[in-house]
Amino acid sequence: MSGTDQRFVLANERTYLAYIRTALALMAAGAAIVQLGDILGGEGQTLIVGTTILAVGIVVAVLGYLRWRDNDKRIAADLPLRATPIPLVLGLGVVGLGVLVLVLSLI
C-alpha cells in the first residue's frame, strides 16, 4: 500500500478543528465583553479589551488554517512538518489578556 497514511491527515484535521474551536471561543468572549458595556472600569477600556480578544480569535482562525494547509501539503509530499510558535504565542497571549481583564475588573 502506498500513499499518505490517512491517520496523519485526520490528525492534522483534528488539530485544525482545535484551532477553530479556540478561535470561536475567543471571538465569543470578545463579543460578550463588548456587549457588557463598562464592566472593566469604563466603556472605552471594555471596548478595547473586547475587540482585542475578538481580533485575536480572528487571527487564530487564519493562523490555524494556514498551519493546516502547510501541514497537509507537507504530509502529502512526505516531508517533515515544520515547528511552529503559534501554540506558545497563543498561550502567552491568552494569559496576557486574562491578566489584563483581571486587573481592569479589580480597579
Please report the distance between the alpha carbons of the first and last residues: 63 Å
User: Which strand-content bin applies to the residues?
Assistant: under 5%
Shape: elongated
- Briefly note the structural class of the backbone: mainly alpha
Measured as a percent range, the helix fraction is over 70%
Describe what you observe in this structure.
- The chain contains three helices and no strands.
- By secondary structure, the protein is an all-alpha fold.
- Helix 1 (6-35) runs antiparallel to helix 2 (43-76) and helix 2 (43-76) packs antiparallel against helix 3.
- It is elongated and about 60 Å long.
- It comes from Mumia xiangluensis.
- Keywords: Membrane, Transmembrane, Transmembrane helix.
- The chain crosses the membrane at residues 16-34, 46-66, 86-106.
Question: Outline of this structure?
Answer:
With 107 residues, this protein is mainly alpha-helical. The protein has helices at residues 6-35, 43-76, 86-106. The chain crosses the membrane at residues 16-34, 46-66, 86-106.
Question: What is the fold's blueprint, element by element?
Answer:
Layout (H helix, E strand, L loop, with lengths): L5 H30 L7 H34 L9 H21 L1
Helix pairs in contact: 1-2, 2-3
Spell out the key features of this protein.
mainly alpha, 107 residues, 3 helices, elongated
